[in-house]
């Protein structure tokens, strides 16, 4: 019998497994795919670096020579207005950076690191059913190579990503009603890249009824994605590829960036964004990363929240297993409280992004009472800001509301480009 069985070998699962295996617990990762495998979510955040250090990942990631990201640009649809943010403006240090990664490589590095620490990994193994309990072994029914079997563990961490296996089995998943999006994305070789310090920065383009990401990767490749309301996409009657091309052609800035390039590989889609779970823990189990809650990808929070939650889930189980006794849900209350606090802070900024008047304030460079510092720190991955930054963020949201009412700040974009982006 294993101490902990982890469903999913992505960032949340690999992180939790590394924590547990290093502490001597018999840990099993059950991963339905064979790594390396394609995954979206290539733009990381700088406040992930401390966790990389803690997990022994920093030298492994440096060896990969990923593109370095020092900040982000928010750009109007016509390219006429641009607001650049550098992470150092968030009080994080002059040379603060994050990585732009190919997730197939990054995730594989994390999984191999978990194995090196002693975790057992079974790839191409699907989990079909899970029975959990506080004072009895958890049983997982699995399938590998067409053969069904079962494994037992004292506890389970569900890190199955958007599959949300346990949340679905126990009817815990709840959609966020206003954030149901579709993302359509592809990679281009030879497209236009920025130069100098901004070469590795992500571009967020405020398009008509959608927004785009442009992420520079190694080997002269750009990841380009369009995110729109599912309802708006369906209303066009277009296939995803045709809809993507329509969005690109309606964005002069994006079209100019991709025009010299050649699309490589297939075009991908991801839908049903933004959901939560009625609870993140239960008797004998914890949900981590996207298996618990998924946020719209606008601010690149997926990997850092996955790893933070996986790290804390692993540590909470280390404490609980060592102290003994039934693994009742209430023993993991602090984990759920912290995880919900992190996602709530990010959800507020996401709600502001899709709400009226965001661009008018966001694209106007006014650092009133340190608002810019607090906003950039949150966008850099500070999921749990201190009291002063929380007050500054409240001020930022209040300024948007008051500007909508009184019109203090005019929209810096041209009339044609000043259109809703979602």
Please, could you describe this protein's structure?
By secondary structure, the chain is α/β, with parallel strands linked by helices. Helix content is 35%, strand content 26%. It is globular, with a radius of gyration of 22 Å. 48% of the residues are buried.
Search tags:
422 residues; alpha/beta; eight-stranded mixed sheet; seven-stranded mixed sheet; 13 helices
Gross morphology: globular
**CA-CA gap between termini:** 49 Å
What is the residue-averaged pLDDT? 95
Q: What profile does the largest beta sheet have? A: 8 strands, mixed
Structural class comes to: alpha/beta
How many helices does DSSP assign?
13
Q: Using the CA coordinates, give the radius of gyration.
A: 22 Å
Strand composition percent: 25-35%
Low-confidence parts: none
Considering DSSP H and I runs of 4 or more, what fraction of the residues is helical?
A: 25-40%
The overall strand count is: 19
SSE map:
Layout: E1 2-7, H1 11-22, E2 27-30, H2 49-54, H3 58-64, E3 67-69, E4 71-76, E5 82-86, E6 98-100, H4 103-116, E7 120-122, E8 125-131, E9 138-144, E10 147-158, H5 165-169, E11 173-175, E12 181-189, E13 202-207, E14 210-217, E15 221-229, H6 230-236, H7 240-249, H8 252-258, E16 262-271, E17 275-277, E18 281-282, E19 285-287, H9 302-323, H10 333-354, H11 358-362, H12 371-379, H13 387-406
Give a summary of the structure in a few sentences.
The protein has 422 residues and is an alpha/beta fold. It is 35% helix and 26% strand.
